[in-house]
Fold these 2 entries.
Entry 1:
Amino acid sequence: MRKFIVIALLCLSTQLHSQTYEIGLFGGGANNIGDVGRTNFILPSGLAFGGIFKWNKSKRYAWRASVIYGKFTADDAKSDISSRQQRGYVMDNSVFETSLGLEFNFVEYNLHKLGPAFTPYLYTGLTYFRYGFNYFDAGQLQDIDQKDGAFAIPMTVGAKARINQFLILGAEIGARYTFTDNLDASNPVGSNFEPFRFGNIFSDDWYVFSGITLTYTFGRKPCSDCFE
């Protein structure tokens, strides 16, 4: 019994020290999908940047947290919908998000062994973001210098590869389904703003971040493969 306890404690100790962490940067572009401007799923109209942290719990998944800021512009004149072209609205906004969730690797991704490490991945979780509360009046965007907050569901697909012992390079496209319909200033909330609503008020907005990540790996690496 004593021998079993010793072995169990040794295994637990190995697991506790066998995690690999990643910390780094995200950089790329942002665009929105709503009732103003283009409807392209991936077409950045502004810059996005932020920080990212990952805790690789196994070869197959990692806990992930990120903070990202992005700006975007929606211009009816660039839409392929004729009614929007005739309307001619132009809208600018920005989002600042924090996100926490799970990243799932399609193939085994082991950073504790020398050699290549590559995998496509999916990420989802829960996002909270702040954005500008705007509305249109007589065709002009009204910015009242007010921020609103909402939750979103991130749906991200990407791929990552080790470029040396400590650096991981990745590329990803992440759509956020938001629980607001006013990212594009089309559906301001409040009885005073009812005359300024337009578009499909029963469909919430999306925004998309697409870009690259560069992370640095750290944490104690055991002599043997910690994930076995």
Note: The chain has two helices and eight strands.
Entry 2:
Amino acid sequence: MSAAPARVLIRGGGVSAATAARLLSGEGVPLTGAGDLVRSPAPVIMLSDPALALLRDIFGRADLFAGRPRIERRIVAWGGGEPVAPPHGAIIVTGSDIAAELGTHRLPPDDGKASFTINGAPPFPDGALRRFGAREAVAATVELMPEADGHACYIEATARGWLFLIPQGVGTAWLLGVGGTPDALLGPSRLVAAQVRKLGPVVARFETAPRMIECLAGDDWIACGTSAIAFDPICGDGTAQAAREAILAAAVLVAIRDGGDRKALLDHYQSMLIAAMRRHLQVSLPFYRSGGISPWWRAQADALAQGHAWCTARLATMPEPRFLLRGTRLVPREEAA
């Protein structure tokens, strides 16, 4: 397929699919939607202020996700150290919030005539998945102690894993146990346990280790979103990454439409996403190396290091990136110099 895509099918209903749809429709690209919504396995998502600002700008809505519970601090106890409380601006949203506010259900239904597909949901044309570790999160509801700070999230490393407490309103929160169940990890906890008045039932289990499908683009398709490339929640940047992927995917399609080199553009897309994963693994590695000394902590750190090496090796086989993203458009590097 060498011609510019005449019509684009967008599959999925998350942030990446909705962002791509918004940008491509603004460029006059005809779109259809498959309507296959894949909800995040996580019960809640922390959307950082930069990610929220990015989405509000893309969708032209200053009130997007207004009124959602707000986080002002991350209180962190790591590697046996005393808690620290750096500022952290974010809001709490659910998968239902995202579907209601951004959903691709407004697109015309798929008519089978699309010549290019943006896959924001599985199955993918080439679905081989590479995982950089294995660590399940177990999510439970909790009641908070009266003195708990409802505008702070709490993160704590224990000997066998880590806890992530995310307030969702007055007196209630979600508690994620990574590496063990919340009740088991609360036992040795000093910081998080002091905030919990009552532990509720387990409501979800999901994988949290970074992972990505090995092939992120083909001649007539692109994969994006957290089903295609997922970050560890320890970074708090997964939703912003999904939006950035969609911006790049839309820019690639517009550049192809405008006569750009299809193969070079699709190669650029893949290399940028692999490079993003490599950066994420590099940032996450110190947390797992310093979180604890148990076999579980060592295994996770080793997996991240191996993943970083794999990404580096993949990038070494790919062409040097030929484009730069300016706003929502790709331009050749020689023009940007």
Note: The radius of gyration is 21 Å.
